[in-house]
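Our example pasted here:


***
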Amino acid sequence: MEGRDNNGFIGDSSPSIAGQFRWNTPPSNGVHVSGTHGVALTDVELAGGKTVHRTSVPEEIARNGTGTAIPVQPTADRDQWGKGVEFLMSCIAMSVGLGNVWRFPFVALENGGGAFVIPYIIVLLLVGKPVYYMEMIIGQFSSRGSVKVYDMAPIMRGVGYGQILSTTIVTTYYASLMATTLRYLFDSFQSILPWAVCEDSWAGNCIPSGSSNTSSMNDLNNTLVLSNRTSSAELYFTKVVLKELDGIDDGIGLPDLRLTLFLVLSWSLVFLTLIKGVKSSGKASYFLALFPYVVMTVLLIRACTLPGAVDGIVYFLKPQWDKIYDPKVWYAAVTQCFFSLSICFGNIIMYSSYNKFRHNVYRDATIVTSIDTFTSLLAGCTIFGILGHLAHVTGKTDVGNVVKSDAGLAFISYPEAIAKFEVLPQAFSVLFFLMLFVLGIGSNVAMTSCVMTVIKDQFPKVRNWQAATIIAICGVLLGSIYVTPGGQYVLKLVDYYGASSIALVLAIAELIAIGWVYGVDRLCKDTEFMLGHRPNLYWRLCWRWITPLLMFVILIYNLITLEPLMYKQYVYPTIAYDIGWCIFAFGLLQLPIWAAYAIYKQSGKTLNEKIKNSFKPTAAWGPLDPVTHYEYKKFIDED
C-alpha cells in the first residue's frame, strides 16, 4: 500500500488529497483480485442493493491467489453535483436561512446581546462543527441518503425515518411562511405600503406605522391615549394577511385564497428547482446562496446611515455579562446552533451523498459553519440598526420594546421599521422580503431534496420529476392548513411537537448510532481511507463524548423546564395537546419499530445472534462504487 493521488479511482476527478491510500496496482477498468483478502460480496451487495452486471471471480483465481483484472460496469446511476462548488453553495443556501435573519437577532437580544455570542461560538465548536463534519463524512463516504445510511447500524435505522418525518413536517409549514413572505413582497409594490396606514375599521385602536406619523407619535408617546393602541403593521398582519382567529375551539376556518395562490407559487419554484434533482438545484444554488448577501449588504449600509442605528447596533452587541451564567442562555445557544445549521435533520447527509468520493468535506464543513455564524452577526447588526432607527423615531429609549417575537419579528417589527423610511420605503421593502423569500426557498429546497432522496433510494425507478411532483402536490395540500385563519395555532403546535422536540431526541440517537454503535474508531478509518488523513483528537473527543453529553444535558434541561404550549397566551383545547403528543410519539416510535424489523431481518440462528448482527454494518456498507468498495474492504481487513 502506498500514498498516491486519487486520480486512479474510477469516476472521480476531484482534486488530489495528499496521503490518500491507494493499492499498488490501481485497476483502470476492474477490480484487482489477489489471494483471499477481503470479504466476498455479491453483485447486489456491492451496489448497495442495486444489481450490477460484472464478470464473476473465477474460483481458481481466488484459490491459487493469482491476480487478474475483472471488468466492472458502473453502479446504477446516482446523481452527482456538477461541480464541487455547487455542493458548497447548496450547503450555504440550506444552512443560512430564516434562522439567521429572523431568529438569531431576537434570541441574542433575549439572552444577553453580545454576551450570547460567547456561548454561541463555544457551542458552535463543541456541537455545530463536529456534527456538521461528521454528517458530511458519513454521507459522502456511503453515497446514501439519511435512511439508507443506517446500513452502518441497521438497528438504528429508525433514526433516519424519524428525521424524515420531522423534516417533512417542517417542509409543510415552511412553504406557508414563504407564501406569507410573497404576500408582503407583492404588497410592497403599492404606492403606499398598506401596513403603514390604518384602515377605517381600525379607527380608535390603531397607530399608523408610516413615517409621516412619527412626529405625532413622539408628541403622544407618553400619554395614555396610545397605551391601548396597536400599530398598523401588527393589525395588518393579524387582520388582513392572516385574518387570525382568537382561538381554534370552533375550528381553524378555510384557507385564504391569496395565501393559497402564493403557497402554490412557492411550491412551483421548489418543484422547478428540483425537477432534475441536484443537477438543477446545484445550478440554482449560486443565486440562492449569494443573492441574500447582496441584499443584506445594501440593507446594512442603509441601516448605518439612519438616525439611531448606531444605538441599535450597540444595544445588540453590548454584552450583559450577568446572563452568561444563566443556563437558559446556553440552552438558547445550543438550540440556535442546532436549528441554524440544520444538523441532525438528514439534510447534510443527503447533500454530501451526491459528492465525489474524494471531495474535501473538511474544508467545506469549516467554510459553511463559519459563514453561518458570520451571517447571523451580520443580520443582527442590520436588523438592530433598523430597529434602533425605529426606536429613535418613536421616542423609545429601549430598543427591546420595539421587537415582536416569533413570526412578528419578520412580519411586524421589520415592516414597521421599513414603513418609517422617508426615502423609497417600497424599494427597501421589496429587497427585504425578496431576501427572506430566497433564504426560505434555499432551505426548503434542501428539506424537499432530503425527502426526494429517501424516495429514490427506496424506489430507484422513480424519476426526479415524479418524486418532486408528488412532494409538491402533497406540500400544497398539507400547507393549506397553515394559511387558514387558525393556521398559526396549528403551526406552533406542529413545530413544537413534530419538529423541535423530536429533533432533539433523534439527534442524540444519531450521535449514539455513529459515535458508539458504528464507532468513532471505524468512522476515523473511513475518513482516513476517503480523505487520506485521520481526524485528530478534537474531533474524536467531540464525536464520542462531548457532543452527545452536551446534547443529553440540553434534553434533560428541556424536560425539567417543560411548560404547557401556548400561542399568544391562548391555551389549546385538550384534543390539540393530544394530537401533538401523538405526533411526538409517532416520531419516537420509529426507533423501536425499525429496530425490531432490523432484528427480524438479520441472519442468525438465535435471537441473541440476530440482535448482535443488527448492530453490525451490512455486507453492502461502504463506498457505492464497486472498485472503491473492494479497495475499502481490503483496507479494513489489513488495517
